[in-house]
Design a protein that fits this description.
Helix content: 10-25%
Oligomer: single chain
Number of helices: 8
Largest sheet: 11 strands, mixed
Number of strands: 37
Structural class: alpha+beta
Strand content: 25-35%
């Protein structure tokens, strides 16, 4: 009763609230202003302890700004009662533009005169177009990227606005996205725009896929500006999430410019096919491509030189340190092959090839026609096979065309596996499947945005440009290795006594010290871009050799002015030898030995710029020697103990390049004998980390591979490059 009497006897304070709201220095009219009063009073209990009362909130003002941006209202608030042990009385102002709260003043103590002035856009530039980004709840979003006509134009500030200058015009299109998650990667070399390695990022966007109840009439509408003078408001939604992959690819051989560009463009086409296959939810955000085996240990995608290698991928390998997507060099010229293997690598999916003649991945994939038939717009059998440029999708549990048992994928459909890997338990973003969409979405429309790269795939057309923003195409981080004196692609043909040899191993030994296994000769290779080989031939990857700059006649005579010794050239010529017999020309032709002759000659390829290499008619006689013996011989030669003073590579007939460089440094006094432990020319090299954080050196384990003729030949392979 005493508390009630104290409250009744308390005085009131008459509060007058005024303020002015401006936007870019101009009066902001017709904005809604709401004032909220918060009051809480405490009284002592019977034990003289202060007990706070319940907080009370009430709206004491609800007005709109006038043409000058001014607002005013008044209210009465209770003053501190007699006997109160605690007292709180404060007010705040919230400003709304439509349903979006664009400013909250924060609480201030109640006083007879209160004033709230605010410049809504303190960073505004005169004449710029103002873009605001909000989320599902209507709150402003800071740090969101804003794209105008497909190009990134800025990032929202703390007020949720970005100021586009030069200003936009009516009809321009806007899209916003906000980064929600960056997932860590166990692989090195994936720290693009980050302080850690990552394999995928998740954004929520203002761009979503729209379709009718049957999944047809698919569109991706962007926000279109009607009045550039007004504030353009974009809403990013959890259901409009996109997930961008961070992929690093490495080509095993030193690719030519044409090869490099073709493989790069097919990886960019992969992003388009992936975007369509996932209904606009997955794409390749970052793409780093290198050749000559660079970043081999860190690569997601390894493109081998071995023509007989079957493309494959580790299931879920994107989340593993040793997971890889491995490509046959011919498959690497078709984006559809990448897409199928990416289903294994990024989503952990199994193959859906039929285990027998009746089982297929979905019931309607056997239809001769219709939207679900093979190759049509709702074909959901990507894991059955996505060759060349097939624009397939993933199967689901949707009742119109559900996943079928009996394949390596197992009982669970592909989309359920994807959902389990990439969904968010906190629902900050959503991954939509045909089941929770309620429809199997058809093929996405061609946006008309130019594709990255200009090369064309072999025998098929490039896919449509499904990704509607140029700023969402894969960002390049390429590393090109360029050597002088490039040789064109060669065809290696192996014969014995004039008869083609099928199944002979082909090894490329480069003047840079690398040995790259090329595969086996076969009856015929039908390769991309119309390359055909005959019986006993092999389409080898392009070799490389630096040009020397000396006249061709002098180069032909060797470095010391005399003809090369038997079986080798002073330039350290590379050979392709298979089963001890073979003939190679740069123009792809073959030389067949005369009947009854011994081993044929090995004409050397002709490089660009007149770079001629000569070898003798009779290959050297070679003695097999163990790797341990090679190491001992090299060390004895460096110590100068009188034995094997001139040690040469048993394959090329000259000292290894690294050994020659080491001897030169010793002669110049730049190296000491205490450092010789670093030179292991035939064993496994020690891998060391440089200041840049990248690994130096590569594994050079020596293997011997039996050939069809019972002979052996060294082959380097296995570990990293």
């Amino acid at each position: 009763m005493a508390i009630i009497e104290d409250l009744a006897a308390a005085e009131t304070i008459h509060c007058s609230v005024r303020g002015r709201i401006t936007r870019c220095g101009e009066s902001a009219s017709s904005l809604r202003v709401i004032c909220v009063h918060h009051q809480q009073i405490g009284f002592p209990d019977e034990n003289e302890r202060c007990r706070g009362g319940l907080p009370m909130f009430r709206t004491v003002g609800d007005v709109h700004t006038d043409s000058h941006g001014d607002f005013a209202f008044a209210f009465d608030a209770l003053a501190r009662p007699f006997g109160a042990c605690s007292f709180l009385s404060r007010a705040r102002v919230d400003v709304y533009d439509g349903a979006t709260r664009i400013w909250a003043s924060g609480y201030r103590a109640v006083a007879p005169l209160m004033r709230f002035d605010r410049e809504l856009l303190p960073n505004c530039r005169a004449g710029s177009t103002v873009v605001r980004v909000i989320d599902d709840a209507g709150n402003i979003v800071a740090g969101a990227e804003v794209f105008a006509n497909g190009t990134l134009r800025g990032t929202t500030d703390a007020t949720g606005h970005v100021f586009v200058d030069p200003p936009l015009e009516a009809g321009d299109e806007l899209v916003a996205r906000r980064l929600i998650r960056e997932n860590g990667s166990p692989k090195d070399g994936h720290d693009v725009d980050s302080d850690r390695n990552w394999n995928y990022r998740v954004w929520i966007t203002s761009l979503g896929v729209r379709h009718d109840s049957d999944g047809d009439d698919v569109t991706l509408p962007q926000y279109t500006i009607s009045n550039p003078d007004e504030v353009q408001q974009l809403r990013v939604r959890a259901r409009n999430a996109i997930i961008g992959l961070n992929l690093r690819a490495s080509i095993e051989w030193d690719a030519s410019s044409t090869e490099f560009d073709r493989i790069h463009d097919r990886l960019c086409d992969l992003s388009e096919l992936l975007y369509n296959a996932t209904e606009g939810q997955f794409f390749v955000a970052e793409l780093a491509l290198s050749d000559d085996g660079h970043s081999w240990d860190d690569a997601d995608v390894r493109i081998y030189a071995n023509m007989n290698y079957a493309s494959n991928a580790s299931r879920g390998g994107i989340f593993e340190d040793d997971g890889r997507l491995r490509m046959n060099p011919n498959d690497a010229y078709f984006a559809g092959f990448y897409l199928h293997e990416l289903g294994h690598y990024a989503f952990g999916l199994g193959d859906e090839y039929p285990d027998n003649g009746t089982v297929v991945c979905t019931p309607k994939s056997k239809d001769p026609e219709g939207p679900y038939a093979n190759g049509n717009e709702k074909d959901a059998c990507l894991m059955r096979g996505s060759q060349y440029e097939d624009q397939k999708k993933f199967c689901s549990a949707h009742p119109l065309n559900p996943h079928v048992l009996g394949t390596d994928q197992g009982r669970q459909d592909c989309w359920t596996d994807i959902l389990e890997l990439y969904s968010d338990p906190d629902r900050r973003w959503r991954v939509l499947t045909p089941v929770n969409r309620g429809a199997i979405v058809g093929r996405l429309p061609d946006s008309g945005v130019p594709l990255k790269g200009s090369s064309q795939p072999s025998g098929v057309a490039r896919p449509p440009s499904f990704i509607p923003l140029a700023g969402w195409k894969p960002r390049d981080h390429n590393l090109r290795v360029q050597h002088l004196g490039l040789c064109e692609g060669l065809i290696v043909r192996v014969t014995r006594g004039g008869t083609p040899v099928v199944g002979a191993l082909v090894m490329l030994h480069t003047s840079q010290g690398r040995s790259i296994y090329q595969g086996k000769t076969k009856t015929e290779y039908n390769l991309a871009y119309g390359v055909r080989t005959g019986v006993g031939a092999h389409g080898a990857r392009l070799p490389r050799r630096p040009a020397t700059g000396r006249p061709a006649a002098e180069r032909a005579r060797g470095a010391r002015g005399r003809p090369p010794r038997s079986g080798r050239s002073w330039s350290g010529a590379r050979r392709r030898r298979a089963d001890g017999v073979g003939a190679v020309r740069a123009d792809g032709s073959a030389e067949t030995p005369p009947e009854g002759a011994g081993e044929p000659s090995l004409p050397a390829p002709v490089g660009r710029g007149g770079n001629v290499r000569r070898v003798s008619r009779r290959p050297p006689r070679r003695r097999r020697i163990s790797a341990r013996a090679r190491v001992q011989r090299h060390r004895r030669s460096v110590r100068g103990d009188g034995r094997n003073r001139r040690i040469r590579d048993v394959r090329t007939g000259r000292a290894p390049q690294r050994l020659r460089e080491l001897v030169s440094r010793l002669q110049r006094g730049e190296e000491t004998l205490g450092h010789l432990h670093r030179f292991r020319p035939w064993g496994t090299q020690t891998r060391s980390r440089t200041e840049s954080g990248r690994f130096a050196g590569r594994s050079n384990k020596v293997h011997t591979t039996p050939t069809s003729g019972g002979r052996t030949m060294p082959r380097r392979g296995g570990g990293g490059r």
